[in-house]
Design brief:
- With 167 residues, the protein is α+β, with helices and mostly antiparallel strands.
- The chain is 28% helix and 40% strand.
- It has a single domain, classed as Nuclear Transport Factor 2, Chain: A (Roll), CATH 3.10.450.50.
- It has a 6-stranded mixed beta sheet.
- The radius of gyration is 22 Å and the shape is globular.
Length: 167
């Protein structure tokens, strides 16, 4: 394997065109974010904000009708099913939900976009009627991968979302 990698690197060095030593170093640049990438990031943020606000109102428009949601080893069905039978009921039990250490990589390829997110989330739970004290917050590291598609109206929507977490 080491020989293969060395041969590959050597081949790349031999095939690269010679550059004059007097060439000034390239200026450090930050890659420009395309309008589509910015729009995809806005959809990710809208969904994240809804969860942090503990309110799924209006989030259905962020997903295609036949979307697929996968969470921690379980196929949750469409977003509408996930919203009604999993996410929505859970959010009602929370006093808070916050994201931190958030990072997202987004790649746009034609009418599709691929997003990989990593984050830490902290859940504050409401005190239940039988609880003697407010339960301790739950803190987890999470990741999500999503596929989004640009619809005929030019709006980006989740086609699939897969998220998981660990302590």
């Amino acid at each position: 394997m080491r020989r293969f990698l060395l041969a590959l690197l050597a081949g790349a060095a031999w095939s690269a065109p010679a550059r004059a030593q007097t060439t000034a170093p390239a200026a450090a640049t930050t890659p420009a974010v395309s309008a589509d990438e910015a729009a995809v990031r806005a959809v990710l943020k809208q969904y994240q904000q809804a969860v942090q606000q503990l309110d799924t109102t209006g989030t259905t428009r962020l997903f295609v009708a036949n979307s697929v949601v996968l969470e921690s080893g379980s196929r949750e069905g469409t977003y509408a099913h996930y919203r009604d039978h999993h996410l929505g009921p859970e959010l009602k039990e929370f006093s808070s939900f916050t994201y931190s250490d958030y990072k997202a990589d987004v790649t746009v390829d034609g009418p599709y976009a691929f997003a990989t997110e990593s984050y830490t989330y902290t859940i504050g739970l409401k005190k239940g009627p039988k609880d003697t004290a407010v339960p301790a917050p739950i803190k987890r590291r999470g990741v999500a991968t999503s596929v989004l598609r640009k619809n005929a109206a030019g709006q980006w929507q989740f086609v699939s979302n897969h998220n998981s977490a660990r302590k």
